[in-house]
Amino acid sequence: MDDDKFHEECGVFGIYGHPDAAAHTALGLHALQHRGQEAAGIVAFDGKHFNAHRDLGQVGDIFSSSAVIARLPGHAAIGHNRYATTGETALRNVQPLFADLSNGGFTLAHNGNLTNARALRHGLVQKGAIFQSTTDTEVIIHLIATSEAGSLIDRMTSALRQIEGAYSLVAMTDSCLIAVRDPLGVRPLVLGRLGDTNVVASETCALDIIGAEFVRDVEAGEMLVLDESGVHSLRPFPPAPRRPCIFEYIYFARPDSMMEGTSIYEARKRIGMELSDESAVAADVVIPVPDSGVPAAIGYSVRSGIPFELGIIRNHYVGRTFIEPAQQIRNLGVRLKHNANRNSIEGKRVILVDDSIVRGTTSVKIVEMVRAAGAAEIHMRIAAPPTMHSCFYGIDTPQREELLASSLDVAGMAKHIGVDSLAFVSLDGLYRAMGETGRDAKAPQYCDACFTGDYPIRLTDFEQSDRPAQLSLLAERA
Amino acid sequence: MDDDKFHEECGVFGIYGHPDAAAHTALGLHALQHRGQEAAGIVAFDGKHFNAHRDLGQVGDIFSSSAVIARLPGHAAIGHNRYATTGETALRNVQPLFADLSNGGFTLAHNGNLTNARALRHGLVQKGAIFQSTTDTEVIIHLIATSEAGSLIDRMTSALRQIEGAYSLVAMTDSCLIAVRDPLGVRPLVLGRLGDTNVVASETCALDIIGAEFVRDVEAGEMLVLDESGVHSLRPFPPAPRRPCIFEYIYFARPDSMMEGTSIYEARKRIGMELSDESAVAADVVIPVPDSGVPAAIGYSVRSGIPFELGIIRNHYVGRTFIEPAQQIRNLGVRLKHNANRNSIEGKRVILVDDSIVRGTTSVKIVEMVRAAGAAEIHMRIAAPPTMHSCFYGIDTPQREELLASSLDVAGMAKHIGVDSLAFVSLDGLYRAMGETGRDAKAPQYCDACFTGDYPIRLTDFEQSDRPAQLSLLAERA
Amino acid sequence: MDDDKFHEECGVFGIYGHPDAAAHTALGLHALQHRGQEAAGIVAFDGKHFNAHRDLGQVGDIFSSSAVIARLPGHAAIGHNRYATTGETALRNVQPLFADLSNGGFTLAHNGNLTNARALRHGLVQKGAIFQSTTDTEVIIHLIATSEAGSLIDRMTSALRQIEGAYSLVAMTDSCLIAVRDPLGVRPLVLGRLGDTNVVASETCALDIIGAEFVRDVEAGEMLVLDESGVHSLRPFPPAPRRPCIFEYIYFARPDSMMEGTSIYEARKRIGMELSDESAVAADVVIPVPDSGVPAAIGYSVRSGIPFELGIIRNHYVGRTFIEPAQQIRNLGVRLKHNANRNSIEGKRVILVDDSIVRGTTSVKIVEMVRAAGAAEIHMRIAAPPTMHSCFYGIDTPQREELLASSLDVAGMAKHIGVDSLAFVSLDGLYRAMGETGRDAKAPQYCDACFTGDYPIRLTDFEQSDRPAQLSLLAERA
Amino acid sequence: MDDDKFHEECGVFGIYGHPDAAAHTALGLHALQHRGQEAAGIVAFDGKHFNAHRDLGQVGDIFSSSAVIARLPGHAAIGHNRYATTGETALRNVQPLFADLSNGGFTLAHNGNLTNARALRHGLVQKGAIFQSTTDTEVIIHLIATSEAGSLIDRMTSALRQIEGAYSLVAMTDSCLIAVRDPLGVRPLVLGRLGDTNVVASETCALDIIGAEFVRDVEAGEMLVLDESGVHSLRPFPPAPRRPCIFEYIYFARPDSMMEGTSIYEARKRIGMELSDESAVAADVVIPVPDSGVPAAIGYSVRSGIPFELGIIRNHYVGRTFIEPAQQIRNLGVRLKHNANRNSIEGKRVILVDDSIVRGTTSVKIVEMVRAAGAAEIHMRIAAPPTMHSCFYGIDTPQREELLASSLDVAGMAKHIGVDSLAFVSLDGLYRAMGETGRDAKAPQYCDACFTGDYPIRLTDFEQSDRPAQLSLLAERA
């Protein structure tokens, strides 16, 4: 199932100046769990030691014991939820990473992806750097460690100027917490406040859970330094036009989060409305593929006047890995999470709303399930344009040839998936839903490379693809 | 949070005549996970041994390894999901239970509750019976073991005639699988078919996941015997009027299940329509308390014309047990699972729809959260009548004095919860939503004792409350 | 390796009237670890509950955490170390067992073996008893539960009169601790005292570890009741001649224990002296097979004047289960525990002293190892007579045909094992080492059935071998 | 208990050219378990990947599952047993360590201790090196990584010339296995052969377990390169006089190992003989403190003619961490491992033989136990001279002021320990037992710094003790 989505982009959290820094970080990471479920870590600083706990699994499993939290004393902490790429399941890759630098202890976590990590890593290894992990994060740390600049902030600035990519990062030294958003602001990052305590997080929902108030989005290319005297804003990069990732609004972010002044839920609902305007069809019910298709389906229903029904019920209990009986059960993977609510479907003309189509493998199975439940017609409506290009700024994205829209036109896709009609929201429709009058072709307001192939950040490693992809020869389970 | 719901009533599953009996049972139990999350067990019979695996935790954790399924060979199997009562968390209480009877091996699992279990147990212990567990299930097994009847079926019939209560049970011997529904049919049980294989389960959603077709509901007071020659129907009890539990339709069952010809989802939607008819109010949005309030909220919205919005977002990742920071976070318990979607609420008159009010503790917190998100008015609508009486046929139900509706009238409850108005669906409205013209006071069509105090089954243990409540003196963690 | 020994016979421990009863029991069981390494359990009574912890593994793993001991409050406790028989590895068989009887809570542990357990069990199941385990211990509990006698002591006496076999048992009710030694005193049991607290244990080494002083051996057929008023001695059985197991002195017991006034270490040393007298041979060194052959080798060396050397070094770290490489290592099983000390062996005429020969499989490998280390001659001397008969009073003993001495004479055994000469101590020599003038054929002072076939207790189950050997049809790992 | 010994010095093992390299390494590490019980690791090279498994615990626990060995394919492997120093229990410190160097993969394990590790580390961190661990081993790896030499062997040679200390190390690249013994040969290392396969190990007992034959000791300052063409000997260091650690013969090594042509067992026995010659006393029994005192006690008994007895019995089951009852048991720590065999002691004049006295804490308790068992006189004889100086070439050694012999003379120690007489073997007696005519004061044949304070290797870090001792600010449990 999960192979048929663009992956969530990891989540970061940081808090400075609170006696329960680690406990708050655990809660913030729980609220950001949707951004990465494979591993999580927290490092807290108690004035002397950097106390760390990092493990594979979900936040609620790793950080819900009082013994673990008790081992993480400190007034400042950073945390990270990881979405693992293939081959990166080892414990050594769980962030935040830590290093004893000549300046003192330093810990760093980042979400997103660097597009010149491999090139930088190669150069560092040639000079004698020893990498513990295969993460991009460690490239940044080695750049800092080997920088000839003086202060930690200067060394970090020097490192940031060498990296290319989309990221938000949080770091911590023995005197401050640092938060950086990439020059184009592709990945999200917000600043919040809990009494006198400053907080940064990937999304506003992580502020809500701890009762912190939202202050503002961190700006594209901004570096915030949180210390005893408050929040300081630095600008380590030359100015550049903002290009936030539009897929955050389509799928990555939680619907109750706000980004750049826009409600994710409202944006999705408006995409559904655009879809209804652009590709109306006579039908009896609007049914979302839960949970990510729900807001767009509500929008479609409101605009079209066709009733909204929960025609597919999702089972939220974990069941990804059941043993397939020898005599296989058809589409078991889908059945473990979804079941058709036959009563709402049988004999009806169904508009099925999903957030996006990536490989299309799940869509085929969902449609087969809805058909088996007796749908008279199935009209699929997708709350995104066709995803025709790889995302190099995200985590473990399918290669272009794996994307259904890269090899088939809409009619071909409709046939492949087995629906009576298929429509995607238009690119301009998507931009209208975001509150724009349309996409500004000369200066696009968002990064929409997965739809347009217009990549705003250089793809150094992709262009130098002769370099071996394998970053480490070490194979170890733990 | 969970203390403020009536508890799910455990789930049972049985399959006879399939080479992958245990793997199918694991899937069936996964689909029934909502009926009990504390423990699960499967016993499979391979023609010689009764192969068992029982553990605390969720089905996906216990039964998703191939090594575990490989240890459960057999062509027949029964399984159970348990919702633990206080003090019953020990492994020895995980069903199905097993006994080496003089007739051979015997295994049994049941959902529901016996109302004379304590009295029967006391008598058995006096005669020298040694109980391994504190479950009602074991009372049935000892009655069978010490029965002087001849065949296992006769001994089981004799045992069933001595027990009082609401239950569905599945059992297995070395020659057949037995499924029994209690005389009044309070607890649900359905029969399905997968090719030549017969299947029984608490709900139809467990048939759907394995691709089995629904055959029929097991009738009230019916005993089915599944063996090599097919399905045999027996009637061990004197005839009695049917009284299925109406709370299954309100909360216990999954919305995609069918019971007695009624879609659970449709029933809930119709309750929402009745609510709208009975207690209309001027408002801007209809917002469900997710997930159980969603169908009724859709019904309310459809009937009232007031837009449906996901104004509260639920985080499905497990997070019940986080460590509360010393400086406590207000209503953390609710925040771990729910967050207000401020954009849909701020400045609006909100109709908040929930399935029921038990203690009311969660309602207070949810309302406070919605109020903090800027709601102008909050009108709470409940898709059940006030729950004024304990349920003695279910699992670990609150005592009467703990029920909010037992001590406050509707106005008092509204004030306590902090809403601008509060309304419950009427008893007749509820029955109308079930397709009746109303409640037949002389012969009520359902068990609705939690609303009416009209208990259709004798409450022997409750009436003889002088007997000590503690069933075992053994205290052991594992 | 361990298949080539008679198995240790389990160990029991009990303490009454000490605030740290469980912690002392854990220490006592640690000292008795050699009597059973597969599982251990403790039940402590705190005046209200019987607090239990039972698990597979060694005492130091199960009972060394403060959290576990904290869950076992109480002023009285009993404990058990188990040596598992085939198929009895399940958790349900870990003793002490517990039952809620009509008289109240009751817990019991026993070492040894009942020779009519199967017959008694069959009768109990016919009457409706449900067994949780496949242990002999549970037979005793069911006999007590179904007894028609009045007091617990009377019911227990009635049960004990029905059982046949060799055992020591400890039991506990809500008012006392009970310790019983079988009518012939085959299995050992001692009484000790720690201040005002009374203690019972299988061997004196368990008194030593907690600093308790030895009071006396419990007599054959004696029942001790330990309660608030002290120690009471009862005699539930008719008088019978004492027949302690002579193999305790040869192998089972720890060398630092005293039994019936005899030091185990001294007894073994004297056996070595008898061996030297009976079968002297010209040699350069006396080398024990460690650890059990050491005392007899010291005795042999002292008497013969031939130097004692540690020619075989034992590695005590756990290493039974290493993965055999595909290209197998010769005699890996022996190498994991033993290594020849070449320097003490090369070119020497070696007298190799071991405690006994059961199957002979290990002896073959040890001799091959000593030969490979360059021994000029190997003369094996065994500190027991040939074991020609099964032991029905012990745990999981080899059947007669598996015993090397049942099919080969001494010359045949010498050839099979590959030694230049082989000699066993004579039966009378063994009795002399025990301080007797020889074996009294009319009234043997010890049970020596494994050497003589003279079984002092009836072998009911063995004689009625038509009854199925399988006690339970339940197959479950945990 | 263990605080009163010099610590074992870790063990290393390497094998090149065998299809079951990892399984053999696991067995070799099992035989070397006495050199370090806190953690163990294996890295195997399969021609492509370096497959690693490293964990806390004993070899038999970590490497006895077939699943683990199956994850370690390869024809070459190195392994390590670790004895943890304070604060080094984290998983990140478990060797062998691994690094992706610019030359390719590289893995290294070493035993012993570097005396300038802190100074080297400080310099490396200043240049930007990031350390994953706090081990000395990683210093060597960073020196190699940042070396400007060309080939790996050249870079390694350059690194080795910078380090000071006592060590044996094994390393592996994608083309060879490298084994190095320190310039003075302080730590042991041997070369063996199994068919066509070459093996290196800390001691010969690791050759015995896999059936390999001993070839020769690796020479002091020798570097062996094992590859497809065989064994190559290099000499990276300037020549220096050999100074093997004499404490290996006293305590560290296994008695069945050979070092530099000497049997450890024989050396210990001869020390006992020297002791008897030097400090004879009238007595009834010679009793060893088991197990390390046994060979010297045998030697003492042989030379003195006083009978050898196992007067103290050792319980080898793990029991270090039992919960002390509130009402403490006197000397529980000693009782968990040792028990007096009263029968051999009572009323006797006892010569108690132990290998060495470090802090003396255990000696006090052992003597008290022997006294309580009724000894008439206790004469303690120690198979080493007084340990008056710290060992800077070993692991976690006590500081000088903690050594009993640094503050008390022999008479003072006798009084402190509570014995009737106390004697240590003389330094020349020790050298005689090693086959020398005595210690050559101008060119001592062994490193005996712990007795003499004559340190043959520079103590750079100790002399520059102003540098902070804390190597990492990271605190993490896993």
From TrEMBL, chains A, B, C, D:
<keyword id="KW-0315">Glutamine amidotransferase</keyword>
<dbReference type="InterPro" id="IPR029055">
    <property type="entry name" value="Ntn_hydrolases_N"/>
</dbReference>
<protein>
    <recommendedName>
        <fullName>Amidophosphoribosyltransferase</fullName>
        <ecNumber>2.4.2.14</ecNumber>
    </recommendedName>
</protein>
<comment type="similarity">
    <text>In the C-terminal section; belongs to the purine/pyrimidine phosphoribosyltransferase family.</text>
</comment>
<dbReference type="InterPro" id="IPR017932">
    <property type="entry name" value="GATase_2_dom"/>
</dbReference>
<feature type="binding site">
    <location>
        <position position="355"/>
    </location>
    <ligand>
        <name>Mg(2+)</name>
    </ligand>
</feature>
<keyword id="KW-0408">Iron</keyword>
<dbReference type="GO" id="GO:0000287">
    <property type="term" value="F:magnesium ion binding"/>
</dbReference>
<keyword id="KW-0658">Purine biosynthesis</keyword>
<comment type="pathway">
    <text>Purine metabolism; IMP biosynthesis via de novo pathway; N(1)-(5-phospho-D-ribosyl)glycinamide from 5-phospho-alpha-D-ribose 1-diphosphate: step 1/2.</text>
</comment>
<dbReference type="GO" id="GO:0004044">
    <property type="term" value="F:amidophosphoribosyltransferase activity"/>
</dbReference>
<dbReference type="GO" id="GO:0051539">
    <property type="term" value="F:4 iron, 4 sulfur cluster binding"/>
</dbReference>
<keyword id="KW-0004">4Fe-4S</keyword>
<keyword id="KW-0479">Metal-binding</keyword>
<dbReference type="GO" id="GO:0006189">
    <property type="term" value="P:'de novo' IMP biosynthetic process"/>
</dbReference>
<keyword id="KW-0328">Glycosyltransferase</keyword>
<dbReference type="InterPro" id="IPR005854">
    <property type="entry name" value="PurF"/>
</dbReference>
<feature type="binding site">
    <location>
        <position position="245"/>
    </location>
    <ligand>
        <name>[4Fe-4S] cluster</name>
    </ligand>
</feature>
<dbReference type="Pfam" id="PF13522">
    <property type="entry name" value="GATase_6"/>
</dbReference>
<dbReference type="InterPro" id="IPR000836">
    <property type="entry name" value="PRTase_dom"/>
</dbReference>
<feature type="binding site">
    <location>
        <position position="450"/>
    </location>
    <ligand>
        <name>[4Fe-4S] cluster</name>
    </ligand>
</feature>
<feature type="binding site">
    <location>
        <position position="391"/>
    </location>
    <ligand>
        <name>[4Fe-4S] cluster</name>
    </ligand>
</feature>
<keyword id="KW-0460">Magnesium</keyword>
<feature type="binding site">
    <location>
        <position position="447"/>
    </location>
    <ligand>
        <name>[4Fe-4S] cluster</name>
    </ligand>
</feature>
<dbReference type="InterPro" id="IPR029057">
    <property type="entry name" value="PRTase-like"/>
</dbReference>
<feature type="domain" description="Glutamine amidotransferase type-2">
    <location>
        <begin position="10"/>
        <end position="229"/>
    </location>
</feature>
<comment type="function">
    <text>Catalyzes the formation of phosphoribosylamine from phosphoribosylpyrophosphate (PRPP) and glutamine.</text>
</comment>
<feature type="active site" description="Nucleophile">
    <location>
        <position position="10"/>
    </location>
</feature>
<feature type="binding site">
    <location>
        <position position="354"/>
    </location>
    <ligand>
        <name>Mg(2+)</name>
    </ligand>
</feature>
<dbReference type="InterPro" id="IPR035584">
    <property type="entry name" value="PurF_N"/>
</dbReference>
<feature type="binding site">
    <location>
        <position position="292"/>
    </location>
    <ligand>
        <name>Mg(2+)</name>
    </ligand>
</feature>
<keyword id="KW-0411">Iron-sulfur</keyword>
<dbReference type="GO" id="GO:0009113">
    <property type="term" value="P:purine nucleobase biosynthetic process"/>
</dbReference>
<keyword id="KW-0808">Transferase</keyword>
<dbReference type="Pfam" id="PF00156">
    <property type="entry name" value="Pribosyltran"/>
</dbReference>
